Amino acid sequence: MLEIQDLHVYYGEIHALKGASLTVGAGEIVALLGPNGAGKTTTLKTISGLLPPRSGTVVLDGRSVVGVPPHEIVQRGIAHAPEGRRVFNRLSVAENLEMGAYVRTDGAIDEDMERVFTLFPRLRERRSQVAGTLSGGEQQMLAIGRALMARPRLLLLDEPSMGLAPVLVEQIFETIQDINRQGTPILLVEQNAAMALTIARRAYVLETGSVVLEGSARELADNVEIRRAYLGEGA
After folding, report:
1. Beta bridge partners of 29
2. Any residues with CB less than 8 A from the CB of 23 and at least 6 apart, and which?
3. CA neighbor of 136 nearest in space, from 83, 66, 59
4. DSSP character for 132?
5. Cβ distance 45 to 26 under 8 Å?
6. 70-126 pLDDT, tens per residue?
7. How many CB atoms lie within 10 A of CB 6?
8. Measured at the alpha carbon of residue 63, what is the angle toward residues 30 and 155, in degrees to the nearest 5?
9. 37: alpha, beta or left, given left = phi > 0 and alpha = psi -120 to 50?
10. Of 32, 116, 170, 192, which sits with the fewest C-beta atoms within 10 Å of its C-beta?
């Protein structure tokens, strides 16, 4: 479905991605792990068209999206729930969800909003509430729900558990699995490597802009270096 090959991305003179390659297949959850500054968010922004690569390819279903404007990438089927939630603070929950469907012209928007409310019942209770007054967990639900309103064929999630209480982290990850079971492949950037590896099928590890490890989630969870670096376990 998604194939990235030899991606090089710069911020000015800073070489942020150095030949990164990865794939996401139909029906998969793929985790992208690594320390802060490794290039994980840069990868998602490049897929979304927010950052132009200097070289390399980003291909969705056989069609390149390099150089395609971000709103057209959404139309082609990629939706992005960014790090830090970034909801529209002055709009209501329902208005935020409607904004997620801004590129659509079909008649199923109400149906998809109902799907979001089924996945996140708390949002149904808050549908008229101004988004800036929601809790952090509720804003994260809203950010994911807004991305789903684009009816994506691939969902990019950047740090969905950041700053959340453990009970909310479990709820968010359960919902991510529900979304995937309903047919949406997911590329997941997540600092909570232990949780990410429990729900992903495969995973990649980025360090200083390069993929240094890849394999099944089980293989990486059993890897001694990964357990020491990301799971907080000793040698």
Report:
1. 186
2. 1, 2, 3, 4, 30
3. 83
4. G
5. no
6. 999 999 999 999 988 789 999 999 999 999 999 888 888 999 999 999 999 999 999
7. 13
8. 30
9. left
10. 170
